Amino acid sequence: SSSFRKGHEISRVRKEFPRLFRVPFNRELGFEIQIRCMTRGSLETNNHSRIVYMKGQPEQVLKRCIHYRTNTSDKLLDAADETSADSKDAVRKKVQKAVNFMCCEGLRVIALACSQELKFHDYAGRTGRYIYKLDNND
């Protein structure tokens, strides 16, 4: 069946790109973090390629972001809006306005971010201790 194939595919991808570390979601933090290998292979053969995924409350995720992705490119989140003479934080304000609208409609809004440019911050992985920076405010 189709659902079996999808489940099998998910299992295969999780095995090929293993999770190294996870900070589970909690209300105090407002987000969840996962660090995964980016290249196929065992944990021993891909020691350098890592990607951080963050999901959670939009305000918590957005304050750690510097870029956003459109259909065609990545853009600076704090750049002035190209379509108007709005302030430097116009994009953040538009995102917050959209989030507020969806919440008023009874929808749950979750933001997703990723970074391949890991900097140093402490975390304990399954195969040892790694140091990466997870918050660009430090």
Automatic annotation (TrEMBL):
Molecular functions per Gene Ontology: nucleotide binding
InterPro entries for this protein: ATPase_P-typ_cyto_dom_N
Pfam family, one: Cation_ATPase
Name used for this protein in its record: Uncharacterized protein
